[in-house]
Amino acid sequence: MVLRPRQLKTANLVGSAATLTASPQVLHSPSFEPLSFFVADRYAIWHDALCDEIKALRSNHTWSLIPFHPSINIVGNRWVYRIKRRVDGSIKRYKARLIAKGFTQ
Question: Residue ranges of the domains in the chain?
Answer without folding.
Answer: 32-63+75-105
